[in-house]
Every structure is written in structure tokens, then in C-alpha cells.
Design brief:
- It is a single chain.
- This protein has helices at residues 3-28, 33-59, 65-77, 87-96.
- By secondary structure, the protein is mainly α.
- It has one domain.
- The two termini are 18 Å apart.
Length: 97
């Protein structure tokens, strides 16, 4: 992964982590009105970041985009980034693929 991909994955996973926390609060009944209204727009942003990652991979000549993104997510799960993310956050991103 190059620096642009690292940035995109970092932003994507931060959004996914926020989304996961919001969903957890929603199920427990402690999410407020503004939090509920952000869930849908945050989901769209997650999709946009996945598209940005796929477009970057196309520009650098990678063919199997989904397979490559899944492999990147597995390496991130194994600690490829400085920050670690819970497995459920990584799994949420995989579901968006």
C-alpha cells in the first residue's frame, strides 16, 4: 500500500468505527436524534471511500479490485496500520464491498 492508500484506508476505517459505535448506541437506545440522522450519510461516505480506494487501485494498474481490497483489509486486521481496529469494524467494511 502506498501513502494515498494508507490515508484512504485510515479515513475509511475511522468512519466505519464511528458507524459501528453509532449502531451499538442505537441498539441500546442511547443514540440521540442527530446521531440517528448521521447513520445513513456516514454509510454513504463509507461507500465513497471504498470507491476512492478502488479508483486509486485502477490507476496504479491493479485488476482484481475486490480481491485486492479484501487482502488489504486482512493485512490491516493483522496490524499493517499503526492503529488497530476491532474485527467487527473490518467486517463492516467488507460488507460494503
Amino acid at each position: 500500500m502506498d501513502t494515498e492508500e494508507l490515508y484512504l484506508y485510515g479515513a475509511l476505517l475511522a468512519l466505519a468505527q464511528d458507524q459501528q459505535e453509532a449502531i451499538t448506541k442505537l441498539t441500546s437506545g442511547s443514540l440521540g436524534f442527530f446521531g440517528k440522522s448521521r447513520i445513513q450519510s456516514r454509510g454513504r461516505e463509507i461507500g465513497k471511500f471504498i470507491s476512492k480506494i478502488a479508483n486509486h487501485k485502477k490507476r496504479v494498474g491493479i485488476q482484481n479490485l475486490n480481491e485486492n481490497i479484501l487482502a488489504d483489509l486482512e493485512s490491516i486486521k493483522s496490524g499493517a496500520l499503526l492503529k488497530s481496529y476491532p474485527d467487527d469494524v473490518i467486517d463492516m467494511v467488507k460488507n460494503y464491498l
